[in-house]
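Researcher: Structure for this, please.
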Amino acid sequence: MTLTSQLCKVFEFIMREALVTHLENLHLIYESQHGFRRGRSCLSNLLTFLEKVTKAIDDGLSMDVVYLDLARASVIFVLIYFLVLVFQLFFSFSFAI
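Model: Predicted structure, token format:
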């Protein structure tokens, strides 16, 4: 561990706290947002979801669920963005010559 990485972590923590506090004060983050907020986690999100699904089934309602794996999708989006950027750079330089 270097001092630089520790300073980056401290800076990231300070910026994250300031940003989340600002967004919460302006009510720009929904109450259902979990994962990075204090006192809420991915597990609490799953439990909240499970509670809503269970209540809907108990009330005789039907429930459709769609799961998205955005972690893999983000890799694909970055790759596509990179390829488009390379394509644009290639053609902009090849026509300029």
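Researcher: Any notable elements?
Model: The mean pLDDT is 79. The two ends are 46 Å apart (CA to CA).
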